[in-house]
């Protein structure tokens, strides 16, 4: 799927691996905890799913688990690859999308954001980051819902 993000950059989204020549070095984790969506409150962008950059020597999965913890205090119980997308910005990059379930939330004074936010429904209004409001994220959320993984 090809689309433009809310910054005006062309993006491509695939639900199968191996479509891009640039290796993914960014992660995004669509998470649930106790039947609710697990978001983080980014201090600048607003509400969004946890994610970030892969550190040197770190796998994509390890980065995803670390980012969820650093941004929300959530401990990932299980994690699965879902998709990847390319953003053709001035410096193009590829991001891998995972789905995860969380076993518990811990209180940490070292969070990189304003912390975890739980939501029953995702009404993607202006409180949400631009990352959450583009057509790529709508497609990702539709794929998650169609999977029936979290039918609770």
Automatic annotation (TrEMBL):
<protein>
    <submittedName>
        <fullName>8-oxo-dGTP diphosphatase</fullName>
    </submittedName>
</protein>
<dbReference type="GO" id="GO:0016787">
    <property type="term" value="F:hydrolase activity"/>
</dbReference>
<keyword id="KW-0378">Hydrolase</keyword>
<dbReference type="Pfam" id="PF00293">
    <property type="entry name" value="NUDIX"/>
</dbReference>
<dbReference type="InterPro" id="IPR014078">
    <property type="entry name" value="Nudix_YtkD"/>
</dbReference>
<dbReference type="InterPro" id="IPR015797">
    <property type="entry name" value="NUDIX_hydrolase-like_dom_sf"/>
</dbReference>
<feature type="domain" description="Nudix hydrolase">
    <location>
        <begin position="4"/>
        <end position="152"/>
    </location>
</feature>
<keyword id="KW-0460">Magnesium</keyword>
<dbReference type="InterPro" id="IPR000086">
    <property type="entry name" value="NUDIX_hydrolase_dom"/>
</dbReference>
<dbReference type="InterPro" id="IPR020084">
    <property type="entry name" value="NUDIX_hydrolase_CS"/>
</dbReference>
<comment type="similarity">
    <text>Belongs to the Nudix hydrolase family.</text>
</comment>
<dbReference type="InterPro" id="IPR020476">
    <property type="entry name" value="Nudix_hydrolase"/>
</dbReference>
């Amino acid at each position: 799927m090809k689309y433009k993000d809310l910054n005006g950059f062309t993006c491509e989204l695939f639900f199968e691996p191996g479509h891009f020549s640039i290796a993914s070095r960014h992660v995004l984790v669509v998470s649930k905890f106790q039947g609710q969506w697990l978001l983080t409150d980014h201090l600048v962008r607003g509400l969004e799913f946890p994610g970030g950059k892969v550190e040197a020597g770190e796998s994509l999965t390890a980065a995803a688990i670390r980012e969820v913890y650093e941004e929300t205090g959530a401990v990932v119980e299980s994690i699965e690859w879902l998709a990847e997308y390319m953003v053709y910005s001035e410096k193009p990059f590829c991001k891998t999308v995972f789905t995860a379930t969380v076993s518990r939330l811990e209180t940490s004074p070292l969070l990189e954001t304003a912390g975890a936010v739980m939501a029953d429904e995702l009404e993607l209004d202006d409180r949400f980051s631009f990352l959450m409001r583009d057509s790529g994220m709508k497609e990702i959320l539709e794929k998650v819902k169609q999977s029936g993984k979290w039918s609770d």
